[in-house]
Amino acid sequence: MRVAHTGAATPLASLEDDVATAARIGADGLEIWAPKLGPALERGGPAALAALLRRHRVAVVSLAPVPDVLFRDPGGLEETVERVHRLSELARALGATWIVLTPGERPDGADERDVQHEARATLSRLAQISERYDVGLALTPEGRPRAAVRTLVAAAALVELARRPALALAPDTFHLYAAGSSPEELKACRPRQLALLRLADAPADVEPELLRDAHRLPPGEGVVPIDRVLALVRELGAEPPAVVPVAPREHGDPSEWARRLRDQAQALARGAPPVRPRR
Question: pLDDT tens across 113-152, in order?
Fold first, then answer.
């Protein structure tokens, strides 16, 4: 399994440091964490960033995230459209394949029909933009109770409904567990729909509906059946790259942390027994 480094795992590091970390640990690419882009581009611009990536021989897998893309007010929707446009242009310049989207919250009173109508219109519009740059959009279902799209089955259905070649999925094992999704829901996905895997574990002593990103654990240290997820992905014949968006609890060497995340994810992919769950 290919495991790319993600800047979400090293939140205190700069984008330049993330590039160096990906090169240092021999990661299978880099997911650029979008909040780090602004400062990096101010320091040197897209050309300097592209040159840095070439110098370190690091390929960009994805840019993430564009948050809360559904049920925006008109002004918020136009901001999202402009952001996808800018990131698509940058992704093409950097050789990135995917931009990761999160759905945001469902408004009070909205039902599944409302979600389908909103997702079809918004995701189609955003995909039309990214397709101009040959860049795909990967939707990550969220486990929050009020999230507009919580399960993998729902997300896969929305991708099919939108009927845009640029749209795919980036399942996050932490969020799927929080939403009560079964790994078996992967069987509802087509192999080409799986753009990227986001691997993170969850503790046993927190109820799924109460989980927040601060509870994320490295793969194999909690109760999420990540090994089953990886086995089902293989059964589908899909080979998406993976990232491990888990921030450290303590300060330390970002390269060592990134290496630990990579190694534990790959161990699960090889069928090694998970680390004893934290309680």
Answer: 999 999 999 999 999 999 999 999 999 999 999 999 999 9
Tell me the per-residue pLDDT of 233-261, one tens digit each, with 9 for 90 and over: 999 999 999 999 999 988 899 999 999 99
Note the CATH architecture for domain 5-269: Alpha-Beta Barrel (3.20)
Q: What are the residue ranges spanned by the domains of the chain?
A: 5-269
Burial of 15: CB neighbours in 10 Å, binned 0-12, 13-18, 19+: buried
